[in-house]
Fold this sequence. Notes:
Elements: H1 15-29, E1 41-45, E2 48-57, E3 63-64, E4 67-68, H2 69-82, E5 87-98, H3 103-120, E6 123-132, E7 140-149, E8 166-169, H4 175-185, H5 201-207, E9 214-218, H6 224-236, E10 238-243, H7 251-260, E11 274-277, H8 279-291, E12 299-307, E13 312-315, E14 321-323
Parallel strand pairs: 5-6, 10-13
Antiparallel strand pairs: 1-2, 2-7, 3-4, 5-7, 8-11, 8-12, 9-11, 10-12, 13-14
Protein name: Hydrogenase expression/formation protein HypE
Family: Belongs to the HypE family.
InterPro entries: HypE, PurM-like_C_dom, PurM-like_C_sf, PurM-like_N, PurM-like_N_sf
Amino acid sequence: xxxxxxxxxxxxxxxxxxxxxxxxxxxxxxxxxxxxxxxxxxxxxxxxxxxxxxxxxxxxxxxxxxxxxxxxxxxxxxxxxxxxxxxxxxxxxxxxxxxxxxxxxxxxxxxxxxxxxxxxxxxxxxxxxxxxxxxxxxxxxxxxxxxxxxxxxxxxxxxxxxxxxxxxxxxxxxxxxxxxxxxxxxxxxxxxxxxxxxxxxxxxxxxxxxxxxxxxxxxxxxxxxxxxxxxxxxxxxxxxxxxxxxxxxxxxxxxxxxxxxxxxxxxxxxxxxxxxxxxxxxxxxxxxxxxxxxxxxxxxxxxxxxxxxxxxxxxxxxxxxxxxxxxxxxxxxxxx
Length: 336
C-alpha cells in the first residue's frame, strides 16, 4: 500500500482519521494537543467566551429516511457547539454545487436548512456558493461553521471525565448510519429506521443545570459510540467500562447490523449525545434526559473506572470483559 495516498478510511473518524490529523493537519496548522481536541474551539473576544466550529457534509444519498444533507448540516454544527456547553447563535453556509444539479432539489434542501435553523434558534448570517463542472463533484457538498456563546463558568470537555463518573446516552444508537445505508443500498427492509438527526442544544441547556457535576458532553457521530468513548478515555487519561445489556439499540438497527455484520457501537449518530456525569447526580441527569423529547429512551450505559491508560471495555451479556477499540477503517463511508 502506498502510504502517501489519502484513503476513505482517513475520513472515518477512527484510527486513520486521528493519524492524519495528528501527524499532518494539526501538526502543521495548529499543534493543538490531544487533550484540547474537542467538538469546537473555545476562544475569547472582547471579554466574551465563544465556541467556534466548522464541518463539511458529503453524505450519500443526499436525501434519506427522515432528513437530508441540509438539515443534517445545520443540526451537526449546532450540536458541535452545544457539546462544549455553548448556546449556538450564528451559522455560515458554504454550498459546492455540481453543474446539472436540480434547482428543485436544492430548494428542498434549503427549506430544510431554514427549518432546522429556526427549530434550533440559530441564525444563518453568511455563506458562499461555488459551482464545479459536471463530473467534478457529487451533486452537492455543504460546509457549515458556527459560533456559540458560553454563558457559564463550567468546564465541559473531553478531558474532564473522572473516576466514578457514569456514562449516559440520550437514546437508541446507530439509527442515522443505518438509515443512510439503507437508502444508499436500496435495502428493502421494513424496519422503520429513520435518521435521528436533531439539534441537541435545548437538551444540553437543561443538562447544564447539573452544574459542576456535568463533566463531558460529546455527540458520537463518525466512528460511533465506541470511537467517541475511546477519544474521551484517552483525553481524560481514564478507563471506561460499558454494559452491553444497557445499550439502547432499536430492534430494526439490531436486525440490519446482524444481517450485514456491522457493530452498532461503530455506527454514526446525529441526534445522540454522551454525557459523563458525577455519580451523585447521574440519576437526576437521566431524569432530565427522559423528560425531554430527544431523551425519552435515555440510559446509563457505563462508568469511568479510574485514572489509567485510556482503555474502553465492554461488560458482555455473559459476564466477561472484552476490549472496545477505535474504528480501524471505514465501516460506512459518507454517512455525514
